[in-house]
């Protein structure tokens, strides 16, 4: 039954989402208002006295103001596939559908008419490499310089409370130096940008509007109607890869969702790191050490109740306790120089992980207790009778024996943790994080950073997006990916458990 | 003149002493060195008294078997001998158990050290889910032995002692759970031997084994007697009769009768013992 | 105390032993008649009866071994069966002695009496009484009776000596009766051996009942005690 449900879910979501990346044919219609061109994205069958309706993705948001238009089926006439029509994917304003009329360099036309398209395709790789260089400089050098400048600003504030001439001077010198270097870098950047803007492309829509656009802002140029299936497949794969591995664009409705995947995995792993020791220690205490009394009973009741508390309540708790109280205190004590800008006193991956750990710890406790109980009593006795201490017995016999069961608990916890969104919204998830919690800047792991999360991404793209129609397939794809991530994490844990079991079990029949 | 008899005078025929058990009599028993003495041992589980004034002497290098119906306290006594009953809540004990000259229930006694001196083999074979080698080495490892040479030697010696060496020497790294039931039980015995205990306690060691495996374990017990003192709890009276030198009969928490196994099984002094071993109750 | 099927089997054993004992007692009675009354018919009957007793011995031996092997008994049961195993051949030996007496009776009956039949009447009755008592001690588990039987053996020994002396006297007096007297000496010995077997039975009975070995008191030793 549950297998059926999972399969149905995956197939449904997959069908809705996976088609999104397949290049669709561009159709041109004649209407009363003139010609329109676009991909047919939806169809509503005739309904009572409503006639059949078509939804057309006309794209060109910068010119038309909207990506999609509805037409009544009898309104549009003479559908035809225009061979030389192109779909241009752009960094901004979504896609463009129309024709490429000319390519210019420094205002001079270098290719025109039928030669325009090959001309663009020829120059695109160079433009792409230029763009990634600019991107690298912005992310790397500029980011480092900014971090250093921020450091100097903080040092200066520290100096205010304890003035020191020499240090102040050193700081000034350093700042000057940094600023000079900053200047250099930005000059280089400007040059590169100019370089990338030298080549421009003249685009024309079906209704005759023209637009000039720098080649650097184009991602792909696809003459969809004249492409073979194989090249369509290539485009499909490259789009899929872009989706998984790239940063999002256009308020998340385009581009990839890599930061969200990364944030989700990272958060789940951090949560596991916290929840396993906590849960295991708690279960060990409850089952092995605590004398049966009201305290233990109360703890058990509390654990069971904890499992039933709505997750948003955990979010509120995480916000109030972790973020404001704990994070606030940490800021007061260790990062007072940065105040009022909060460091840990605001939502961040660590607090989100801790909140989720709190949310899932009952699962781990309960399954660990079960696992501990399932370790045969006679094995413990054998160990104790050999003269082992209780701790040695627990450590060498009971815990290894219970490890598969503990992992089961972890699997359940991860499954629950990866799917939670509500508490994260309060404790550290953002729709677009400027940087990831793990990167090349010292100290590499930034527990205080906010992060992106697939679940929240779905919510954000699906419900909060200004262009929700365009983002619909993204929602499905993201959901599919979230499922995949959860399943992958589970498989990893299940595999680990199977290996453990095999080691424990030997060939008992 | 005397005629010499040509026939030599025949030597008196001296038969080798029988290879079976020494035929102790009471006097000999009284002079034997005692490995274990139990004095006026009372034991309560909560409010329920489970043992009543047990007095028991176990001479060194002998096998003492404890028989009696289920719930008569024989296992309880066995578990009191290495203080495994400490692990159960609500157990209260009065009286003395002397291992050599040391009172086990002296508050100053280190239970861990004590359990090293008292090996235990359980009813159901319970090897750890580790390799054969690690099972035997476990006792040494938890007592901090790290020297591989010492470990190797001890593992071999213990497995030889338990009569298992030839069967497993080529697969010491295999999981112990892959062994047969009888092998597992002998592995558990080897594990107990590894820490060189003075006394080995066996709680129905053959109850889950087939007759062949049981036979091997019984032979093993006979061999082990040379180096260890063994206390064995068993439900199988034939087994008690076969392996033990002394037998104690428990009934309702009391040690009804204890004596030479031969005596107890042919001519018990107590009516209850008689009824039990002839199967008239229980 | 639970009812055991084994008890029924032991009861069967006891009954078989009793049947054998009755047979043997009848043989002793017949043997007495053969010697005192010089009756050929009884003599032949004794010889015939011995075959039945032999058959009983084989049957009971077998049953005993079966029970020992299958039931692996302990304590009283063990002592009872071990005792039975030893009592059965004793009874069989008694039967053999009776048969011997019967055979010699057939020879003697054709000749004149050497001795006053009262002697053997007395001897026979004493021996028969001992056998009866030993069997009764076994069946009833009567320790006192068993002890009395062991003591009564002395009386039989006394009678044996008396008859032996008398027979010697007769032979000295009349060398012609040496052949007949010699036969009677052996008959006398047979009766004395029957009494010894009765004593042995009682010793086994005492072992069954008390678990102590009372044989050969001069050895002073009991391997278990």
Describe the fold and architecture.
The complex is a heterotrimer of chains A (509), B (282) and C (225). With 509 residues, chain A is α+β, with helices and mostly antiparallel strands. Chain A has a domain of 247 residues: MetI-like fold, CATH 1.10.3720.10. In chain A, 61% of the residues lie in helices and 14% in strands. Chain A starts with a helix and ends with a helix. Chain B is globular. Chain C has 225 residues and is mainly alpha-helical. Chain C has a single domain, classed as Methane Monooxygenase Hydroxylase, Chain G, domain 1 (Up-down Bundle), CATH 1.20.58.220. In chain C, 83% of the residues lie in helices and 0% in strands. Chain C has six helices and no strands. The model of chain C has no long low-confidence stretch (mean pLDDT 89). Chains A and B meet through helix 10, helix 11 and helix 14 of A and helix 3, strand 6, helix 4 and helix 7 of B.
Notable features of this structure?
heterotrimer; A: 509 residues; alpha+beta; MetI-like fold; six-stranded antiparallel β-sheet; five-stranded antiparallel β-sheet; 14 helices; 13 strands; C: 225 residues; mainly alpha; Methane Monooxygenase Hydroxylase, Chain G, domain 1; elongated
